[in-house]
Structures are given as structure tokens and as C-alpha cells.
Amino acid sequence: SIAPPENLQLQSHLLQLPNEIKHAIYGYCFAAGVPIIDPVINDKRQDGDNKAPVLGIALLQTCRRVYYEADRRPLFSHNIFRFTSVDRVRSFFRSLGSDFTPFLHDIEIDTRKVHSNHPGIGREWLHYLAWGGGSWGKTLGSLREDAPGLKCLRLNFESWPSIPMFRSELWNLLRCMMGQMEGLERILVIGASKGAGMAKREPWSSVHFVGGDDVGSDDLIQRMWNTVDGEDDHKVIRWTRCDGKLHLEVVSKAYLVKNIDRRWIERSMQKKQTDPWPANGT
């Protein structure tokens, strides 16, 4: 263990700042700005696909005073943690411990590994997202138990062009993932959407998320809507297009104004039915 500081480093301009300013700076240092993929505590491997983004955690090594006074909670509350398997997410939570798990607010599930020849991968996600609590959730694993402070959940289906599954099977997986969720403040479904033809389709069309529109029940928005807490008039549907991706979300207005867009005031619409949908809209 590291001994408490004896030298208060009063010559440092940073450490002379008021506490609220120092902690704001520490928080910015700990924010990655991009999703952290399959994080592993105290892992030093250099995975070519999942290199860790640059984080300012080296700040904790500058001196013992910073090590002791820096608030580490923003490292978990200000970042998006993306996982590609249930095993990865559960291993992360087990190694993290109960001190910081309540501060993980934003988790992304990447479905790139689901496969028709390995149906167990999809089933594991469905069981983990069943939102079960109590002894069952603790024994078999549950996102609700592992991340009690979860506010935002992202379901990433942007890899649908290369996922070896029938479009209808993939669509059913997406729908079932939300079947028993509740109490969120924001949920996003991420798809791949490129070209003028895609731009004319409704942002909630299954084409963007599984590559087909004849895939079964057209209830994506309703299922997303039911996962977000609050009255109907306190929630909105939003979408954004960027770099060939479509982000579709249902979010509470309070969370939207506080954490995403403080200037949001109204919804957007098509002017004509034949017009492309706005790239970004509500």
C-alpha cells in the first residue's frame, strides 16, 4: 500500500487550486471520450483490437497527495464501457469490486460475436439482461445486480452486415434483449446506415439494425420506450447519424437536458413524406 503524503506539494499550482476546481480537472483527465472496450482491471496486455484509450490515470502517480485526494469515481461515471461477451463484463465487475460498481452509469453491449452456430452467446446475453434481482441474479449473473447505478444502456448492432445469422433471428435477439429491462434513463440502439436509400427510411426501421424490413414485429420503439422510467410526456425519441452509424434512442427529458443537450427545446419532423429524414432529430 502507498503511505499517506507527508509533503503537501504546496509549490504546485494545481494543488493550490480550490478543491472543486481540482476535482473538475481530475474528472476531465479520467474521461476517455470514446468507449472503453472489454476493460480488464490491472491488465497490461496490448490487444490489437481493443487497445485502451488514453486516460489520465498517470496523474495518480505524480505524487502521494494526488493519489490520495483525487476522486476516482468519474473514471467510471464519465466513461462508456463496451463489452463483447457476458464473460468479459462479469469478469470486469468481479475484479472491480463493490466500491465502484454503483458509479458505472453507461454500458454498451456489442453483439459482434453472436453467431447462429453458437447460439449460447446470444442466450447468455438474454439471461444476463433479464433484469433479475435477489439471490437468482447474484448466483447466475444479472446486469441489474452488477451495475445498480446504471442509467444508460447501449445495444450495438452496427456489425449486422457481418454477423452470421438470419435477419429475423438477429431482430428477435434485439427485441428480446429489452424484454425485461426497466428503470433506465436512456437506451440506445446503434446500427449501420449508409447511403441515400437508408436516409429515406424511418430512423426506427429494422433495416438500420439487422439489414432487413421483413423480419417480424415492428415494435422496436415500444420496447425501448418501456425500458425508460417516467411518464410518457417526460420522454422523447432521438436519432443521430455519423460515420455510417445510426444511433436511435429513447431518453428522459431530464437526462437529455442535463447530460446530453442543454439547448434541446423541441422535436424535428420531415417537411414532406418523400424527403430524407433529418440526419439528427427528435
Descriptive terms for the model:
12 helices; alpha/beta; 282 residues; 8 strands; globular; 2 domains
Give me the secondary-structure topology.
Blueprint: H1 19-29, E1 36-37, H2 64-69, H3 73-77, E2 81-83, H4 86-96, E3 106-110, H5 119-128, H6 134-140, H7 143-146, E4 152-156, H8 167-177, E5 186-192, H9 195-199, H10 207-210, H11 220-227, E6 235-242, E7 245-252, H12 253-260, E8 280-281
Parallel strand pairs: 1-2, 2-3, 3-4, 4-5
Antiparallel strand pairs: 5-7, 6-7, 6-8
Q: Which descriptor suits the 3D outline?
A: globular
Fraction of residues in helix: 25-40%
Helix- and strand-based class? alpha/beta
Low-confidence stretches: none
User: In total, how many domains does the architecture comprise?
Assistant: 2
* E-strand count: 8
Radius of gyration: 21 Å
Count of helical regions = 12
Oligomer: single chain
Mean of the pLDDT scores? 87
Main sheet summary: 8 strands, mixed
Strand order of the largest sheet: 1-2-3-4-5-7-6-8
Strand percentage, roughly? 5-15%
Q: How is this structure best described in words?
A:
Strand 4, helix 8 (167-177) and strand 5 form a beta-alpha-beta unit. The chain is α/β, with parallel strands linked by helices and 282 residues long. The mean pLDDT is 87. It has two domains: 1-74, no CATH class; 80-281, no CATH class. The chain has helices spanning 19-29, 64-69, 73-77, 86-96, 119-128, 134-140, 143-146, 167-177, 195-199, 207-210, 220-227, 253-260, and strands at 36-37, 81-83, 106-110, 152-156, 186-192, 235-242, 245-252, 280-281. It has twelve helices and eight strands. The N and C termini lie far apart (50 Å).
